[in-house]
Design brief:
The complex is a heterodimer of chains A (about 500) and B (about 180).
Chain A lengths: L1 H13 L2 H19 L5 H7 L9 H26 L8 H48 L5 H17 L5 H16 L1 E2 L6 E2 L5 H4 L4 H19 L18 H23 L6 H14 L12 H24 L5 H12 L8 H4 L1 H30 L6 H20 L2 H19 L4 H24 L11 H22 L2 H5 L13
Antiparallel strand pairs in A: 1-2
Helix pairs in contact in A: 1-15, 2-4, 2-15, 3-4, 3-9, 3-13, 4-5, 4-12, 4-13, 4-15, 5-10, 5-12, 5-15, 6-7, 6-18, 6-19, 7-18, 9-16, 9-17, 9-18, 10-11, 10-12, 11-12, 13-18, 16-17
Chain B lengths: L26 H19 L15 H22 L20 H21 L1 H15 L9 H19 L8 H6 L1
Classes of the chains: A mainly alpha (about 500), B mainly alpha (about 180).
InterPro entries (chain B): DUF1468
Keywords (chain B): Membrane, Transmembrane, Transmembrane helix
Protein name (chain B): Tripartite tricarboxylate transporter TctB family protein
């Protein structure tokens, strides 16, 4: 099989000493970042975007992928031991894992989570190997109208599916699109929103926008509401599982990816929905239904496995279509742009070494993560005691360094602060951050595809809908937009609605 | 954590609501969106059209669409706020929404940040970066070690970052007079 051969070549790339080192750096950083409160993987990758100036793309993406997967592993440790989930995907782990830890079964909860992540990540990555080349082949001759349709889908999906308020989602998207407009028009060189400033005519670097929204905005928002005296972390020993627990967890581990992977691939908020669905599924199927809510191990194993598999699903859409479905993927897409690489169907043809090296390194990273997290969980949990002033001062420090490194100009640091203040306002008034970042990254690209498509059709709007692919995507968009109306017409949905006590913060924190 | 508020629907909130003007502070967001919308539209309309503009969609079209959409969303958001809808403040591990917001700390941090921007060129990165970390930690409430451990950590972090950027990434941050001496 073709993809098997490519994968073997990929292992050749991933197993070189230097790339192994970057994978190790990535998973170590990722786990630390996942454990540390206040830093999510999206913020971490954003803060590390300056490495793109010095590293070759393969090394950088191997590291970023390690951070993405590592953040999932580490995030569940925080949820279980501290009951304060950092990533929205880790909320479910807190619901069942924290009661387990309180009851002295923290070791088992950590083991169920870590092995769950390993199983989910492995199965998800295998699905990625099988599906990604197929999707890329199907999509290989899509043109400008199709690209434009996909990007509109991304805009609509992040604003309509996620978050509690559509109008706030759209407000966020428009802020992002506006930031993306600043600079010279790509096709005519016309100045837009530059106000005669030479500085702005280069546009606002996407690194500055990502770091400003994710790092500065978050740090300032936490500073405004810093929790005095965090709850104590529960001490634990080495994670392990008894035979009885293994009997209860192996099925959830295998079921999780089936739910997680497809949800990761579509723009539906990453791991948030699939972890919740996996939790409900395990609750229905469990023989120990009464234990749920008080520390049922199935409720840790299944959702955690689903979370990691969804990360693999996310990579399918990002690598094959250039469609970011989560905040991390959006920031990784920004990194691709830094290198001048356009993710999409042609990526597998043009950059096989990069893509397959990245995929192979996911397998390598997963093994590293399991080794790191099973015996060393007690060590990682010590990170929870980092003094908060140092943590957030460090975030501000690295954000400032990153912005300055973009062009060596102090004014960039000021622009960073302004964007950070916008990020602060968005958090204060419930504007989700993800639509803004997607708007900045995809906006200019979408405009170019739109203009290209209309040039081909000589201005006729039919040029946007003249392929079956584009029509399908627009039907999906219409369904997304009409969904609230449809829901009102279907009365049974109301009865069926699940209690929303697990409402989660918007992703991207 | 409170449940999400749907747009336009009123739900009882557990937390006490601020009254008077503060209850409608979210209208400031509408004002901002409105202002940005007007800015984008003005910029697009005053744009000189160049002869090199090819194709039916010029450089104006998308800004016009975005600007108009900004105005529409500003109005829709205002309607939502006036009907009682509220944006849900974001939670987090270290975020305590029960406490009132501490804007003084935010202002201090912004000040420290601007000082860094002003000082990096004259003083060089190692000094300015150390001041940034130390000042931020102080603003965030690190008092017990403010004169002992904090400056050491700040200096170490700043020098290490300088070295890593220079040696590993090949990005030359300004050394300033200090590095000139060394």
């Amino acid at each position: 099989m073709d993809s098997v051969n490519s994968l073997i070549d990929g292992f050749g790339t991933a197993l070189t000493p230097l790339n192994l080192l970057w994978a190790a750096v990535g998973v170590l950083l990722g786990t630390a970042i996942g454990v540390l409160p206040g830093i999510g993987p999206a913020m971490a990758v954003a803060l590390l975007l300056p490495v793109t100036y010095g590293l070759d793309p393969t090394a950088a993406f191997i590291m970023f992928a390690g951070i993405y997967y590592g953040g999932m592993f580490g995030g569940s440790t925080t949820s279980i031991l501290l009951n304060t989930p950092g990533e929205s995907a880790a909320v479910i782990a807190a619901i069942e894992g924290n009661p387990m830890a309180k009851a002295g079964r923290g070791s088992q909860a950590l083991a169920a989570a870590a092995i769950g992540h390993f199983a989910g990540g492995m199965i998800g990555t295998i699905l990625l190997v099988v599906l990604a080349p197929t999707v890329a082949n199907l999509a290989v001759d899509i043109g400008a109208p199709d690209y434009f349709a996909i990007m509109v889908l991304a805009f609509i999906a992040v604003t309509s599916v996620l978050g509690s308020s559509r109008v706030r989602g759209f407000a966020s998207l428009l802020i992002g699109l506006t930031l993306g407009l600043v600079g010279l028009d790509q096709m005519t060189g016309q100045q837009r929103l530059t106000f005669g400033s030479l500085q702005l005519s280069d546009g606002i670097d996407v690194v500055i926008v990502a770091v400003g929204l994710f790092a500065i905005g978050e740090a300032l928002w936490v500073a405004a509401h810093l929790r005095r005296g965090t709850g104590p972390s529960i001490p634990v020993g080495r994670p392990w599982l008894g035979r009885d627990e293994l009997r209860r967890t192996w099925k959830p581990w295998l079921r999780g990816p089936l739910i997680g992977f497809p949800f990761g691939a579509i723009p539906a908020g990453g791991a948030e929905i699939p972890t919740f669905l996996s939790y409900i599924t395990e609750k229905r199927l469990s023989k120990h239904r009464k234990e749920f809510g008080k520390g049922a191990i199935e409720g840790v194993a299944g959702p955690e496995s689903a979370a990691s598999a969804s990360a693999a699903g996310t990579l399918v859409s990002m690598l094959t279509l250039g469609l970011p479905t989560t905040a991390v993927a959006a920031v990784m897409l920004a990194a691709f742009q830094q290198y001048g690489i356009q993710p999409g169907p042609l990526l597998f043809d043009r950059e096989p070494e990069l893509v397959w090296g990245l995929i192979a390194s996911l397998f390598v990273g997963m093994v590293m993560l399991l080794v790191l997290n099973l015996p060393l969980a007690p060590v990682w949990s010590k990170l929870l005691r980092v003094p908060r002033p140092y943590l957030y001062a460090g975030i501000l420090f690295f954000a400032a360094v990153g912005a300055y490194a973009v062009g060596g100009e102090a004014i960039d640091v000021v622009i960073l602060l302004v964007i950070g203040l916008i990020g602060l306002m968005m958090r204060r008034y419930g504007l989700p951050v993800l639509p803004a970042i997607i708007g900045v990254i995809l906006g200019p690209n979408a405009e170019q595809q739109l203009r290209r498509a209309l040039q081909i059709s000589d201005g006729s709007v039919t040029g946007l809908v003249n392929t079956p692919f584009a029509v399908t995507v627009y039907v999906v968009i219409a369904a997304l937009l009409a969904w609230p109306l449809l829901k009102r017409l279907l009365p049974f949905h109301r009865r069926n609605s699940t209690p929303t006590s697990t409402q989660t913060p918007p992703p991207g924190a | 954590m409170s449940t999400a508020n749907d747009t336009g629907t009123q739900r009882p909130d557990e937390r006490p609501r601020p009254t008077g003007l503060r209850a409608y502070s979210e209208l400031g967001v509408c004002g901002l969106l409105l202002a940005v919308g007007i800015l984008v539209l003005t910029d697009a309309l005053t744009m000189e059209t160049v002869a090199s503009a090819r194709g039916p969609v010029g450089p104006r079209t998308v800004p016009l669409v975005v600007g108009t959409a900004l105005l529409v969303v500003a109005v829709l958001l205002a309607v939502d706020v006036l009907r009682g809808g509220r944006g849900e403040a974001e939670g987090g591990e270290d975020v305590d929404l029960a406490e009132p917001a501490d804007w003084r700390t935010v202002a201090l941090l912004a000040g420290v940040f601007l000082a860094f921007a002003a000082l990096i060129d004259p003083l060089g990165f190692p000094v300015a970066g150390a001041l940034l970390f130390w000042g931020s930690a102080f603003a965030l409430g690190s008092r017990t070690h403010a004169l002992t451990r904090d400056p050491l950590i700040a200096a170490g972090l700043s020098l290490l970052t300088y070295a890593v950027f220079h040696l590993l990434l090949g990005v030359q941050l300004p050394g300033g007079p200090l590095m000139g001496v060394m």
